[in-house]
Fold:
Amino acid sequence: MIRIVEGLEQGLALLSRSPGYDEPELTPTAAKRTADVFGEPLSATQAVRRILEDVRFKGDAGVRKYARQIDQVDLKDFEIPKERWRDALASIPGDLADALRVAAERIRAYHQTCMPQGWHDEQAGYGQRVIPIERIGLYVPGGTAEYPSTVLMSAIPAKVAGVPEVILCTPAPGLTTLAAAEIAGVDRLFQIGGAQAIGAMAFGTETVPKADKICGPGNIFVTIAKREVYGHVDIDGLYGPTETIVIADSTTDASLAAADLLAQAEHDEMASPLLITTSLGMAQEVRAQIERQVAMLDRREVAAAAMANNGVAVVVSSIEEAIQLSDAFAPEHLCLLVQNAYSYVARVRNAGGIFVGEYSPEVMGDYVAGPSHAMPTAGTARYASSLGVHHFLKYVPVIRLNIEAMLGLGPAAAAIARAEKLSAHARAVEMRLEGFVGETGNGVSEEASGGR
Structure:
């Protein structure tokens, strides 16, 4: 079920990795389906490129073509009007609507606290404007399952950032997804999925407006499509299968550690549920708990496959070694189920999110804790951050020097420009410096200083 290895050296050999997105091979089912759609065997990238080309040059017709061929859906109207969102919110169970609102308020409060402010230093002559991106395109997976939490986690930070228009693409949205869109403040919603949805938002069609940036997780085809359209639009990142490291010591409740690992394993057969512990006995007890608990899950086959494919427990000699090993893996989620857990937070360098203590399981982060659950995977936590207001903002420097600053800094600028053999650059500074030499006692002409 989950294999156990001992020692930091073995753990590093097994878990150390460099960031990057390696395209996985298509499953036999996906490969056959792709061949059926395109009339020949294609890799995922080849298939995505064909879809994107059709959407780019054929617009709505290209979207309809692949909705019909891939999703077996005959799309007449792409957009779902807001009246249906409001009706959906009114029709779902009251306790579910209340739960979505609780989550929304936590998410909104967290991101409002994170919101940066513009500034300007008059004396130094520089500052920064913080400007929201004009139009954001969000992708939320759907079809066989609903992810209203992802709607909230993606759209609310964009709206907190001040984005004027947030559009959402998701295939076959159900009532809960529509209700979440209403609560989150989404502006327009299109019932489009897959690479064709990414193409529609990247290039624009007769119906779907072109976005400036696309954010959100998806399957292999969606992820590759985001990679392919980068440059036409910005993207938040490339998300792979979910991954969680649980760090445990001899005091950890093994049943809770097993439950946290299984909660991630049930997502995907390629999920990575990893345990790092200072106790061999704890590793063995967690493994036994996993074997007991997996039988009770609705998605037991998926969770069991993830455990068999990627489940590992590493036994190390200290919490410090455990953190060293976790940093080498750079997990999407890091759960500290140890004594004095908060004292170790400052030692962690690489993690998408840190979950401290047994009352803060990663599942709470999935739904109601506040920070977005869209977090970096595949080792990109070494340099990337979880989705937040910063993804929806531009930071624009503003230079506003006064005469004194120009006189003080100008000679250095001209000297560097001439060293680079860019005489026009140098002259643009020197002409100003020469113009400032006037008849006033301070060396600055009254005309030059007026109104500044």
Confidence is low (pLDDT under 50) at residues 439-452. The longest helix spans residues 94-114. The radius of gyration is 27 Å. Residues 157 and 388 are 6 Å apart (CA to CA).
